[in-house]
Amino acid sequence: MGTSFLAFFEQLAESSWSIELHESQYAYSIIESVHVWTLCVFFGTVAMVDLRLLGWIMPGVPVSEFARRVLPWTIAGFVVMVITGTLLVYAIPVRTYQSIFFRGKMLLLVLAGLNMWLFHARVYPKVAAWDVDHVPPRAARIAGAISLTLWCCIVFSGRMIAYNWFDCDRQPQPAIVNFLASCVPTE
Amino acid sequence: MDPLPFFQWCYNTPVGEAIRNSNWLFAIIEAFHLVGLGLTGGAVLIVNLRLLGVGLRKQPPAQLWAATQPWLIGSVILMIASGTPLFLSEAIKCLYSFAFWVKMTSLFLVLLFTFTFLRRVVQMDLASDRPQLGRVTAIISLVLWFGVAWGGRWIGFS
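Output (structure tokens, whole complex):
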């Protein structure tokens, strides 16, 4: 399983588009910049919605109003994040696949998605009952707090992918790092 | 006045030196800087999108401005508190970086614009009075904020 994933990313790395993107003078920098700037739209609007769920901001604005007017911007930001993020992985496939920060980030993304899904399936359907409450019920506050924490951690781990502290080609690494990054020992 | 001695002094501060000598500090501080960027973006967008006539458009701009202002100020303080040590660690590079000066100029202008002009515009009855004023204000503010973000990102490429 692990090796077939590695083979897939190795194959990506050999494609001419990946090499061109990797070696490009401006394209990579621009894609990376768009990824960072879009934080303002994506993370910024997520944070505002989460803060509203916590009851810390704009208590006078109904939660459903936030969902209707602000979340479309969040989704648009997320689409840009995914497109630019995928291109960044595509430009440096093997190293990114073996980065413990990238792996941590993907895991946190799944958890953030799960949290969002639980909120929309279990908590949000009853929003009419607490739409105008200045402080939403406990379940909504917890979902907001988890979301805000996870997205902060995702920003952190995303930033750390750029650093090569734990790269497979920098040995010796602690056994736990080699295990988590599924480094293939070269002898 | 020659700015070089001041930038050299910044570069040689213990904080600057500690960050340069550490493998981790720059990265960790920068991650906080990025969280601050996102929060600033959120607070700025809520008000400016409203001035453009989208987003939370049922609420009066004055209400959104009042509600987001503490978060805007808080996140800008987080940006400055994390950005200053980053600057100290590479002050001399910044002195010769075009992007750094674009960023600092835009930051000064956008803060000035926000806390003098924009804060008055959000109090006006834009819908009936001056439909264009809100839009122009938002565009100027967003362009200036983008200057800050562009410069910030581009310092890293120089």
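The helical segments of chain B are 4-11, 14-21, 25-52, 61-89, 91-95, 98-121, 131-155.
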